[in-house]
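Data availability (excerpt). The following record was deposited with the supplementary files.
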Amino acid sequence: MIGSLIHEDYMKLFESKKIVSPFLNNDQIQPASLDLTLSDECYEIKYSFVCHDSTVRKKLHKLALKKIDLKNQFLFEKNKTYIVRLNEKLNLSNNMFGHCNPKSTTGRLDIFCRTIVDYTDEYEKIPSNYNGEIFLEITSRSFNILLQSGDRLNQLRLINSDHQYYSDYELSILHNSHKIIFENDNFKIENGLKISANLKETNNPVAYSAKLNAPNINFNKINFHKIEDFWNPLHSESNSLIIEKDKFYILRSKEKISIPPFLAGEMVPYDTGIGDFRAHYAGFFDPGFGDPNGSYAVLEVKTNELPFLLEDGQTIARIKYEKLNKKSNVVYGSKIKSNYQNQGLKLSKHFY
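Predicted structure:
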């Protein structure tokens, strides 16, 4: 069936050797995506690249500065760029193609990562019927981070034949039968569901910004690092916040959203019509996120050009809803130990 694959489809792809990995763990398979894992093969590189006319390995022969063994933890230094082979390989057929994106935890740590594969002129793209290795380019931009083989920074979504997105009309009809947005009666559906920034002036922080000089983060230590060592809490002044150039911010949406079990959601990461900033680095919502009563979307915000005045209730991102090839019986939430269901202004799982 046409549309995005679900949990059981990935299981079948492993069984049929369409996805191959020496270290598959069942909890890598999410409701409508697959967590990818770092291998022990890593290189520091001179600069970023894509491989429109060659393999990744051929480019690495020219661009690698040094090879790094990730069997043990290695410190990925801030603003240095590395490329890591992933454990998973693909052997797709029947016009199946895919797309990759960072996991939520990766985005909340300001780790900029992009998938690169052979003979493809776009990042994050898995071409139709792709057969080969997958590599991940990694640049940590706010923190020095300890990583090693087996860590999961990005995820893969596979699609049968074609994307099937809900139109604005279909989203409006859907909302009448299965609410997709809460706590805002004046929401807008325009090229997807618009969501806004929560910057209402209160005694509580409305955002966090990454500290410039923070300790190292151990990616494998959960609920281990003190928030105050890494983040500055920010309060709203006059229901607004200045997003300063080259600083990294964590905010949350004003609205709660819901992704029904027969759909997946994707936040558009960069939309110049909304503002010259990037609002999300992960951006994928599995079926069941926020279902049935809604959950806030956490926003990873950065502007690289000019400082930007962001006001409470201002549109900050759009969410597109994509049809799954069938309803998923495995959904995001506590049953599969999902980290960010019913979240508020939530930093990554590493902090307490």
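Summary of structural features: The chain has a mean pLDDT of 92.
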